[in-house]
Every structure is written in C-alpha cells, then in structure tokens.
Request: fold
Amino acid sequence: MNILVVDDSALMRGLVRRAIASFGPDGELSVHEAGNGEDALRAIERATIDLVLLDWNMPVLDGLSFVKKLRARGVSTPIVMISAVTDPARIMEAAEAGVSDYIEKPVQVAELWERIQEHFATRQ
Amino acid sequence: MTVPPALELYEQELTALRRQVAELEQEKAALRAELDSHESQHELLENLVYGLEKEQERSRQQVDAARMAVATLTRQHDDILQHVRQGILTFGRDLRIDPGHSRAAAELFGRSELGGLTLPLLLGEHAPLSLPRYLKLLFDATAASPRLLERVNPLRAHRFHDATGRERVVAFTFARIVRGGAIDKVMAVLEDSTELDRMGRALEQKKREQWQKLERASQIMAVPAPVFRDFVNDARAIEHALGSALAAPAQASWEDDLRQLHALKGNARALGLDELAQRTHELEEAAQALSERVSDARRALLEDQLAVFKSMLDDGDELFRHLTGLRKSLASSQEDPLDELLHSLENLAEREARELDKRVSMVCARNGVAAPSDQSLYRLRSALVQLVRNAVHHGIEDRHSRVSAGKRELGSIRIELHSDGGRLVVTCSDDGCGIDATALVERAVQQGLLDPNDMNRLEASDALRLIFQPGLTTRSEASLGAGRGMGMAVVADALATVHGQIEVRSEPGMGTEFRLSIPAAAGDEPSTRGGLNEHLGG
Reply:
C-alpha cells in the first residue's frame, strides 16, 4: 500500500510518517510526500497511490483545487483531507469535489492511524 | 465304424440343446444380473424418493417457518413504522418522500402524510440554506464516507417552532441505500431530541445552580451563626422597609433605608458573602435611583432587584438552617467571636487593598479584652467594617502618592482594643492622608447640609464630625467598595444602637484616628431598627 502525504509543512508530513511508522505493520505501507498540489499530481503520475492524506491550505496548488484537478482527470484514488477548516459549508465543498473523509486539525496520531486503518478495511 | 444316423442326429441335437441350455444359462445369468441391478436401482430409487420426500417435508417446514418469519417481520416492520418514536422516511433522487414512512416521522411535523413532499418543502422557512446542496451530495458524492456526510449534515440538530409555537429539536441522520452498485435511495432517521436538548440545558443550569449553592454554603459556613442571624434580621428589616418605600415612594425615609443598605452591603462583604454584597449593591443603586426621581422604570428596577434579593436571602436562610447541624458538629473548632471579627477585618483590608492596588498592613491588638454580647459585637462589626474600608479607600493613599509624600509605600491600619471602666474602647487608626476638614465644610455647604453663616464659626473637631452626616462624600462615584458618603453615617447609626460613642481626630497628611466606645455589657438591645422597645428597657 502506498500512501501519499500532501502538506506544505514538513512537520506535519513527519507527524503522519511517524503515525504510520509507529502504528502500521512493518514494510506493508510506504509513505510518499509532496509539498503542494502540483507536486502531488506529479507523484500520482509516477507511482500507484492507494490513499492520499491531503492538507487544504498550501502554496502553488491548494488541497481543494488538487482534488478537482485529480477528479477531472478521472482518477478516483481515495482522499482524506486533514485541515483546520471547520466551516461546514467549506467542508461540504470538499465533499462535493470528491473527498472521502475529513479529519480536523489538530490531529491526534492514534486517531489518524485509526482512520487510515478504517479506510483500508472498507476497501477490502 | 459307422454310427447309426439316428444316434448321430440325436447327439447333434443334444449338443445343440446343450449349447442352447448354456446360452439360456448365460442369458439367465445376464437377466439375473440385470434383475439384481434393477433391484438395487429400485432400492436406490426408493431411498431417493424417501429422501426426497423427507427433504420436501423439511423444505415445507422451512418454507412455513420462513413464511411465518416474514409475516412476523412484516408485522414488526409495520409496528416499527407505526409505533417507533423515531421517524423513518426514504426518498429517491427526485427527493420526493416515499409514502411508506413511519407515522412518527409525520407526527414530528404535525402532519398525517409526508409522501410526495421534499424535505425543503416540509421544513419550509426553517430549512437550512445548505439543505438542497446536502441532499444532492447524498446522491452524488459517492466517495464521501458516512462520517464526512454526517460532519456536514445541516439537520443534525434541526431547531424549529411547531404549529403551537413550541420550540422543538429534531435530529436527522441520513444513510444511503445502495442497490446494484448505485445509490438508490436515502433513508432518514428522525429523532425528537427536544426533550433531550431541554434536559441537556436544564442539566447545565442545574449544575450552575448547584455550584452557586455550594459556594454560598461555603461562604455562610464561614460566618458565625449568631452573626449570620443578625445579618439576616437586618436584611429582612431592609427588605420590608424597601417594600413599603416602593408602595409609597414619596413618604419613604430614603435616607434611613439607604444607610441601612450601605451597612448591610459592608457587612456582607466583610463576612465574605460576596454574592449578597453584590446583590445589596445593586439594590442600593436601584433604591438610590428611585429616591432621586420617581418613575415607572425606576420603580420596576427596584422591584426586580428586591425580588432577586429576597430570593437570595431565602436561599441563604434555608441553607443556613440546613447547615446548623453541620455547624454544631464543627462548633468545638470555632474560634472566639471577637477573634473571628478581627480576622475578618484583616481579610477585608487585604482584599480591598488588593483590588485598589494599594499596599496595606493591618495590625489588630485585642489586649485580652473579653468578647461583648452578640448584639454589641454585630454592631461593632458594622462600624469597624465601614471604618476599615474607609481607611483603605480614602485614608491610605495610592503607592505613588505615598512615596512622593516621603512615606513608606506600605500603608498601616491599626485596631486596638482595651477596657476602660465599664466600657470597651476600640481605636482604629491609619497613617493615610487624613481628612481635609476645609473640603468637608465646603462640600457640606454646597449640599445644603450646613448654613454658610456657620461655616467660619465651626471648630476643627466639630468640622470633622460632619463626616457622620449621611450623603456627604468628597468622591463623585459610588462603587461596591465605597463612595456614597454613607459609610460614616452607618458607623454613627451602629454605635447609637448599642449606646456607643465615637470620636475622630485627624492630622492632614499624617492620618486619622477613630475612637469608639461601647458599654462592655450592652444587655439585650432591640435587634430591629427604630425605637420599638422604648418602654421595655427599664
């Protein structure tokens, strides 16, 4: 399984990586990283990604625009958004664009791992 | 050798017959074998038929059971739809509600039928703006997880007013029904959470009240029982006086009432009954307003404040009675009432100083004096509370002024007790700014309390006595602490009640000293104000 973590904060990417490393099974999950939406689009072209963990506010190409672009290309990779946005109207916009799940920042590492697991369980 | 032809024929015939018999034997064996196989087949078939019959029977039973189960389920389903408290409804992509909804769903909206309606139509003006968007999302956002859908559900707690005008809260939960890989319908489960919502809020309210009660209880617990009783008696007397004043504001003796209120406020504060002190302060403001000018609004304000004050007093009284038992069990650990008074004055000074950002040290010297009667002690408390507050507020200067005046930053207040013949003498002194007698006289003239002709004939010591006049203050704003010019009048009042006397000396810039004296054995004094017991005394 390949997970792509898209966040402009290296700290946040590190946190997700640690969450997966400390909770996930050895060697079964590999983590790819991208610093913005554009990088993420390129990463998805290069490798088969099973799950995208996506920040909302990012330079170059923000999370929501990334989702719209990806879906327009017909790519249906599941996307879990991780953001500090709390306005239901904006989160609804993300759902309309094709986001699968939404996690509010600040993220609890254990909760993040639980959601990732939940996601793979419903896929199988 | 020749064989007779007949024999040869016979032998040939025999051979043929033998062959025939053998063939027949073979045939017979074959037939037998065939028969055997038929027989076993028959047996097999019979078994099979038997088995099939049994199977059929079992199937029939199963079918019956299934039929019954279906019937039960159908009945249960109907029951559920009819009687479940939850409303259940479904709708398709056209958003029209299917006719087979639960009765509860319709009843939640005071209707008998919802079929054909859409949710936005049903909710009308109460429908959230984002509802159409959300309903579309339910069918279109196939990737969205149930959790995400619930996160953006605009009807999670739908608040509206029903036909009778009652506020209701209905919680909607939506679930997608997938058939053939596509979202076929959406089911909505509606739950009336009005009661839950109300209970939740009532619980919050209850918790707050409990907390307040607990705090009040802890405050009351800290007050010695006789002191609290006197306090409540005072408060009741004021409550009655204000009640009469409200009925006839023009005939009321406002000055008296305001003075009593001010004393009560000071005592409440000194006793650590903060909430009551705040209430009394607000009551005082309202009474002051009405005393200045009578209007409906001012009358209503005082009425409201009086009602709140009364209910708080009732609560306090009730709490006090509840606490009596507990108090008795703690009685052995209670300190001497006079020590308690001195401690509470020290606390008061510290608290008031902190609020004013002043530095004050207060020293009390009891000098072995015996505690006076409860009644005397209560009045002494009223007087000393006002003196200490005045000393902190008006006597001790702020830190900057003290330093510029060449004084220590730390202000000092001293209370000393001693016996003098049959009297208990208390001096209360501070090293503050003293009383400006000239300003006091000017102010008294301005307020019409003093005839301008008398102004120059006034001795310095008499001028100082002006501070005992109610309403005279050199401050322009009243606060919970002090400043309405009532404090000294309260002191004079309290002492008069127990046949006490008061003297004041002041040195501008150096400080002020009050000297109080009361009969050491004051006897039983009337606890209510006024001269009710004039003829009972002696």
